[in-house]
Specification:
- By secondary structure, this protein is an all-alpha fold.
- It has one domain: Ribonucleotide Reductase, subunit A (Orthogonal Bundle).
- 68% of the residues lie in helices and 1% in strands.
- Strand 1 (46-47) and strand 2 (52-53) form a beta hairpin.
- Helix 10 (215-235) packs antiparallel against helix 11 (244-264) and helix 11 (244-264) packs parallel to helix 17 (368-378).
- The relative contact order is 0.09.
- The structure holds fe (ii) ion (2 copies).
- The site of one fe (ii) ion (FE2) has 5 residues, from helix 11.
């Protein structure tokens, strides 16, 4: 490369560099001193001398979550052609057109790009008004959860260590934003009134957003996202709700994030053993109990036993909690037993002729693909079939 070097004032250069060195030392010493006194200091957990976030590269986390998320990134324009989204680039649109051209007439008809009006007509045809209200009640509960997932994942960006973990969370922020906006259109297409958050969802989600630091990982990625994953797995085979299959895949990745993170940055022994921490997290779980009781009629409309659903969620939650280090195996088994007891006691009170049932062995996820995803994510915690 050829350039015409310009003359500079050598003395000015030396002075500027000397001034910068003095100010640099002063600024960094001041921030180190403030940090040592617990009075703040540098706001960014960023190590510019190593060109890395504090905590290092954490490439495993990056590959597992950021790279994989980008690989699996889906576009609403393809997955929900009836929606208002135009998020494909020219290349992606061309690929979709090519793929459609190679289909047989029958396949093409099944995959036909349907308009918003046609989609609404399909929902009108397939669902009774009561079924519509049930789907909307269940989906909007998790739709409100998507709003909080977006906020919580964004807030965790400043709490985690390492470049890899931040890259992973950045993808989660992007995916939760997509889930929220796409879910809104899907719910609105049903054309029935969208319910507000119930008091239990309000307590669960506010409790998660206000939780201390990494307890938010528990409230959101373990608790709320296990509920989300289970709802998507339960509904994705219903007419018009095929797009939920993609939500399900994203959520399975999100539920795995705390486990991957604590593998790299384990909680201290004191944090793991803290009875107060366990109590805080148990308090976060509690609103889910009355929530299940509240949505039981809607699940019943769709032919799902609310406590089969709750049991399958709780099994996933305790599996993830144990793997991430939020509780030990003994604590998990005890908690499962307590929930099993409460579910059965409530059913004895409210259902004629109820017989003791192992709700925590139930599975309400239906699609083969979704079951395979859950088997990969939860291993032994996911039964081989529904
Ligand atoms: Fe989500
Ligand atoms: Fe999520």
């Amino acid at each position: 490369m050829e350039t015409q070097t310009l003359p500079i004032n050598e003395r000015a250069r030396k002075i500027n560099e000397a001034v910068e060195r003095v100010v640099n030392r002063a600024v960094r010493s001041r921030d180190a001193w403030l940090a040592s006194l617990g009075l703040g200091g540098r706001a960014a957990a960023y190590d510019d001398e190593r060109y890395e976030f504090v905590g290092g590269a954490a490439d495993t986390l990056r590959r597992k979550h950021y790279d994989k998320s980008l690989r699996l990134l889906w576009k609403a324009e393809v997955a929900a052609p009836w929606s208002s989204f135009r998020d494909c680039n020219a290349h992606e649109r061309e690929l979709t057109d090519l793929a459609e051209r190679s289909l047989t007439d029958g396949e093409r008809a099944a995959r036909a790009r349907i308009t918003s009006a046609e989609f609404r007509a399909l929902l009108d045809r397939e669902y009774t008004p009561e079924q519509k209200r049930a789907v909307v009640a269940i989906l909007s509960a998790i739709g409100h959860g998507e709003a909080y997932a977006w906020l919580v994942s964004a807030s965790l960006l400043t709490r985690v260590q390492s470049t890899g973990a931040r890259a992973a969370l950045t993808m989660q922020v992007l995916e939760e934003a997509k889930h929220f906006v796409v879910m809104r259109e899907l719910i609105e297409a049903f054309g029935v009134e969208v319910p507000r958050q119930s008091a239990w969802e309000y307590l669960l989600l506010e409790g998660t957003l206000k939780a201390e630091g990494l307890d938010r990982f528990f409230g959101m990625n373990v608790m709320v996202e296990s509920i989300a994953l289970s709802i998507f797995g339960m509904l994705s085979t219903l007419p018009g709700l095929e797009v939920l299959r993609l939500f399900h895949l994203d959520e399975s990745r999100h539920t795995a994030l705390p486990v991957a993170y604590f593998n790299e940055f384990p909680m201290s022994k004191r944090e793991r053993a803290s009875a107060l921490g366990r109590l805080r997290r148990l308090k976060m779980v509690l609103p889910t109990l009355p929530l299940v009781m509240l949505i039981e009629p809607h699940l019943a409309t769709l032919g799902v036993d609310a406590f089969d659903f709750a049991g399958s969620v709780m099994r996933k939650v305790t599996t993830l909690s144990t793997r991430a280090g939020f509780m030990d195996a003994e604590g998990a088994a005890a908690q499962n037993q307590v929930f099993e007891g409460i579910f059965n006691a409530y059913c004895r009170l409210t259902r004629d002729g109820h017989r003791q049932k192992r709700f925590l062995d139930a599975e309400t996820t239906l699609g083969d693909v979704e079951l395979a995803v859950e088997r990969a994510a939860f291993g032994a915690a996911a039964p081989a079939s529904a």
